[in-house]
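Changelog-adjacent note: as of this version, every example in the card shows the full chain rather than a window. The one below runs 372 residues end to end.
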Amino acid sequence: MLSSQAGIAAGLDEIPPSEKAAYERIDPQVPLGISPLRDFKPKKGPPWKIGYASNYAGNGWRAAIMDEFMNKLLPRYKEAGLVSDFVVTQSELKDTVQIQQMRQMVDDGVDAIIICCSNVTAINQTIEYAYNKGVPVFSFSGYVTSPYAINVTENAAAGGYIAGKWLAEEIGGKGNVLLVSGIPGFATSDSFDIGAKDALTAFPDVKIVGNVAGNWTDQVAQVEVQKFLATNPQQIDGMLVQSSSENGVVNAVLQSGRPLMPIVLGGEASAACFWRKNPEFVSKSFHFWPPRADARMVWDVVMRTLQGQGPKVQSILRPALPYTIDDVKAALPEDCDLNSTDWLEPTGDNWAPSKVLDGFFDKPSDPLTWKP
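Full-length structure tokens:
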């Protein structure tokens, strides 16, 4: 079961009341409490060398993340004299490789390491190794259980709950549902599924009749859903999908010849384009983990921490944000691309605006204009 821990763990009572809602229905493994980096001071002043130990590069979400890091954030922070270099490694879902890459980054003198969507426990010893060498580690779009890291992430369990509840209501409170997970065993995927299943306990006439792994990748999800539909003739009334897989799922259903059913959409521009062309498809969609906004958020937290602004809590969480067909029409033209690899992002900086992040730090300041 999910837990509501807002106001319970030490440190959470210091964040703005308006942000505590993001800590409702939380995966109980997510570390809460006072940040281990609250009094952190970097080994040296700027410019800093940042490492990004990614564990996967095979989908459009990761491509958008890399573009935001390399082509938007890095040039701005280099120009400001705050970052000297950004080192990227890929472990392709191999924990031992990611561990080796992170240790090498520490030994090569990075000042901070960003990790993404990793196994919740596998790299904890490496995070402690980095911490003891004065190198803070920041996990985004997923969490690790290490007491030495900062998690900067969406509340994926709450997102799954919202998705599950919406889908159950969208299909009238009864019917068969196919669950399309991300990568089983990874924090975001498992937390989302926990939340979705928890939501469905309130709908006894809604049954999960199958579960496939879409690997957060359209091509993989399309193949897996096609295989399921071909070998399971029962009616499917809805699909509970983790982004970025929804376009593959839509295509799988269309190619199967079955009537299109409600499908959870999470921000892919391709699936949003299909919705724009078929406005009765679903009633709403959600930003669960918008890639560019996620990248900006973790970068902001890294910079603030290196600047000694003092993060208050171990895990800085954001809630899922709904969006409507009107938002899609405002973002995409009528002749939008059904094969786009782009993403819809929250309007403006609604995901993690500076005024919100300020509330998670003892000495908040705009990280881009900060002076040592």
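Structural remarks: The two ends are 45 Å apart (CA to CA).
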